[in-house]
Design a protein that fits this description.
Two copies of one chain form a homodimer.
Chain A: H1 5-43, H2 50-68, H3 71-86, H4 92-107, H5 112-132, H6 138-157, H7 167-173, H8 179-202, H9 217-230, E1 240-242, E2 248-252, E3 255-260, H10 267-285, H11 302-316, H12 320-335, H13 348-355
Parallel strand pairs in A: 1-3
Antiparallel strand pairs in A: 2-3
Helix pairs in contact in A: 1-2, 1-3, 2-5, 3-4, 5-6, 9-10, 9-12, 10-11
Chain lengths: 364, 364
């Protein structure tokens, strides 16, 4: 081997890395475009747009999938494997090559037409549900749910044999987790959670009826957005809108949106769901723009994502400190609709309990 | 030739037609997805989304263009030419094959990277303009306009030689029109318009100051939407939103949206621009869903499109009949902000003049 060869190999690897990032960015952009269509469908699309929108989303997802399983992408990832191993394990490039390889190896097993059919069904189910939910009409949803279950089983079949039919889905959400590992984890947690839950249930039930008065919808929405911004959600790189069910969606590092819903008779619905989604969004907004458009430019797993959303919704937003800071601001927002909100002492026990860092010995 | 052969050819042509429509639908869906991203950028996108959004739109437009110039599409169109000619000229299928052929023959001349660069520039120009316009900052826009001119000339160069550099652009908007044919048309119109314009100018200037009071923005917006709906714009298959500049955009036969802008000191701005865009939208909403997703599923030309928008804005909405119907409703909308609007007699002459079917002899 001549002295110049490693340098040439290195240069070539770097060129391949540029090509890998270009390909991954195109996949990411196609998925983001599909996500914009999805957000629009959930927020502002007129009812007439429903059928074709499903087809358009399905097409974008299929195109993204076709690119994600392109043999040329697979060859590029293979060719970069040794280069990736030569880099520090936690470096962006080593991680990118590793994660891209893992995703490729999973996606290559899924036929593009499955992706298209699943997206079509997802879109049609969502549209049906937006009418069925307010009418409390479960029967309408049954065939959609059955079809979803069929497609989920079909998805799992591409990864056969699995120890459990849910394993490929769990692995998508949390890499390398399985039904067995989750059962083990939940078993451990249960042993610690059981005494906590019993201790809580022995307390007098907290009176949170103060949250369940009638509050003007617009004031609730504005207040929820204000609180989300105060805890750190950047509205220059995001926005809050109304949907039937709250969610968080990322189109790029500079555009991570959240949605909420408002229940006129429950202040907690809009407030806590907004803070839950803001937790997801702040996690996504905190990811370096340098890895945007790659598989590293998104939350690492559903588990870590939920840890962020629930931290804000349950630990922060239900604490005494949070209540004492925001009760006054809440009243400022409600004043326009001639309402006020008071944090009553009667919900203090549960709040005090939470402030004690989830100590398993409750205050009696 | 055996007796069975024409039947076999016919069947084969019909199969090819199905394949042609599938390919055209994919192109249409990609363009529609790009249009959703464009609408979102103009309406609700947070500022942080700007840079990447341009890249995402450019990618979708490039993918649509690549499909629009695919050699397999060209072969399909060629193979269907004789079949198309065997059908009645005005039938949907004959028209589709003819129009698809025309579009293919134009688009094949444009390199995909031009499409990508032009979309990127368009997106960046729009973002710059949204800040430059309120600041009345023309200097910022100059380099964007120069670059746009460069790209427009570059576009024309792909169709060289043309008699005039604008001809390829005019032909895109109005098929088979050229600078020369427009000059001839405008020359003819000028001879008829000149006496009309002079007659109008000899009238005392209409006093339309009634439109230029201060009107609450929300009431104006709601009123404009109400009028658009009353004249026939279907809000189940469309919606009205605010943008820096009004436009109409179609994502499918069931989703044709319009936008407007509201000037607190001019009732006419929101009202007339909304009715202008509603004119475009009603034309698009009137197209048969059967040709949706094909080149026939959109307005036939910019000329016909503007004839619709201007008919509603200028002929209908500035007529006495329109004023007498909607003044009362306008006041109902404005009442919430303690305002009323009166149609004064002083603007009657110009209105009466218009009611006389554009007769070139004005009322003195």
């Amino acid at each position: 081997m001549t002295a110049g060869k490693p340098a040439r190999n290195r240069r070539s690897a770097e060129q391949m890395l540029v090509e890998l990032k270009r390909r991954l960015r195109e996949i990411s952009d196609l998925n983001a475009a599909g996500d914009v269509l999805n957000w629009d469908q959930a927020t502002y699309m007129p009812v007439g747009g429903a059928g074709v929108r499903g087809r358009q989303r399905a097409m974008l997802n299929r195109l993204a999938h076709e690119r994600a399983v392109a043999p040329a992408l697979g060859r590029l990832i293979d060719a970069l494997a040794r280069y990736g191993e030569s880099l520090p394990y936690d470096s962006d490039d080593a991680s990118l090559i590793r994660v891209a390889r893992r995703e490729y190896q999973k996606k290559i097993k899924i036929p593009p037409d499955h992706v298209e059919r699943a997206t079509m069904l997802c879109s049609a189910s969502y549209d049906a549900w937006t009418s069925a939910r307010p009418a409390n009409d479960f029967a309408t949803m049954v065939p959609y749910l059955e079809r979803t279950l069929d497609l989920s089983r079909e998805y799992s079949s591409y990864f056969a044999p699995s120890k459990h039919v849910a394993d490929p889905h769990i692995d998508d959400a949390d890499a390398n987790m399985t039904t067995a590992s989750i059962r083990q984890l939940f078993g451990q947690l249960k042993r610690q959670l059981d005494p906590m839950v019993h201790a809580i249930c022995e307390q007098p039930a907290a009176d949170d009826s103060c949250l369940r008065q009638t509050f003007a919808k617009a004031a609730q929405f504005d207040f929820a957005r204000h609180v989300a911004e105060r805890i750190g959600y950047d509205l220059k790189r995001g926005r809050l809108d109304l949907t039937h069910h709250p969610f968080c969606t990322r189109f790029s590092a500079g555009d991570v949106r959240i949605t909420t819903r408002v229940n006129e008779n429950d202040l907690g619905d809009a407030l806590f769901s907004t803070l839950h989604e803001a937790g997801h969004a702040m996690y996504e907004q905190g990811i370096s723009g340098a890895v945007d458009g790659t598989p590293l430019g998104q939350g690492v797993s559903a588990g870590v994502h939920e840890s962020q959303s629930r931290l804000w919704k349950n630990v922060v937003a239900r604490s005494r400190g949070f209540g004492s800071i925001f009760t006054h601001r809440c009243n400022e927002f409600l004043r326009s609709s001639c309402q006020t909100f008071h944090l009553p002492c009667s919900i203090a026990p549960s709040i005090r309990w939470r402030d004690r860092s989830f100590a398993p010995t409750p205050t009696k």
